[in-house]
Amino acid sequence: MDKFLHQKKSFFIKKLFFLIILLIPLTCWSIKEIQLFGSDFGIYYAGSFYISEDYQLYKDFFDHKGPFYYLFIKSIGYFIGWGLNQSFLVLIISLLVFYLPVIFLIFKYCKSNISIFTMLLLSIAILNFQNSNSSIAFFQEGLLITSFIPILEKKYKIINVFLVIFFFWLAFFTRIDSIIFTPLIFIYFLNSLRKKTLSKKL
What we know:
This protein is mostly helical. Helix content is 72%, strand content 0%. The chain has helices spanning 2-36, 39-50, 68-80, 84-109, 113-125, 135-152, 158-172, 182-194. It is flat. The relative contact order is 0.11.
């Protein structure tokens, strides 16, 4: 029992260590980008702030992006308020929507510390040459990756099918180009009905 608890504690400490390694560059990147405050991110943030019953997206101001990212920022604003510091937190949370499922997959499929560390470095390297305007892309991709996890793990229970479709539609209502993955979702749905795996189909 003591050995099991020790192993569990060691595993938790290792995860915490790697999460800190990831959060430090995410925080530094977000601080730098908030100081520059990209035009697109500024539109998302300001647009979310002004959205109300009297000021509506697509009616009072137009954007070719979907409404979900605006709703996401608006929801965070209700809890933490609005301002420069708060926009920094919104940017970090947007990145975490992408990085949390990535971290989940890294911890699940990478067994050694070296492979975990290498994959974390590669995931952090994605931020290179990106600015705050890419926040919506990271957000969308995080929703898509979350949607794809049950597909990757070949899970076909009702709750898994619901989660795949739910997160896929959230990604679609963030950026419409998510629709290119519709065939993958459709194949998964058919396989869930037939209870077959996706490997041969893909």
